[in-house]
Design brief:
This protein is mainly α. The chain has one domain: DNA polymerase, domain 1 (Orthogonal Bundle), CATH 1.10.150. It is globular. It starts with 21 loop residues before the first helix and ends with a helix. This is Helix-hairpin-helix domain-containing protein. It comes from Shewanella avicenniae. Pfam families: Cdd1.
């Protein structure tokens, strides 16, 4: 969902989260995450590495940015577009 349209009180499903569409929701389900609250306290980098391991594919590193956006949102931060986290990811993690 577009981060500007996210209303925290109305987030009930994965696709209600900022930046999450059907493909990302499917990836999260592969990780055993079926409800937004399951993202609380999760490490976005570990989610990415686990997703790559499960699928046997090296996913685009921008997936980390999306995981950063949604884990931070669930942990209480304002909704942000995924690209808001790109510079931070590039500084902390090079894949």
């Amino acid at each position: 969902m577009n981060p500007a349209k996210v209303v925290r009180a109305q987030v009930k499903t994965l696709t209600d989260l900022p930046n999450v569409g059907k493909a990302t929701a499917s990836d999260l389900q592969l990780l055993g995450i079926h409800q937004p609250e399951q993202l609380a306290g999760q490490d976005p980098y570990q989610l990415y590495l686990t997703l790559c391991e499960i699928t046997g594919v090296r996913h685009d590193p921008c997936v980390i940015d999306v995981f950063m956006a949604i884990t931070r949102f669930v942990d209480g931060e304002a909704p942000q577009p995924w690209w808001h986290f790109t510079d931070e990811r590039k500084k902390l993690y090079s894949v």
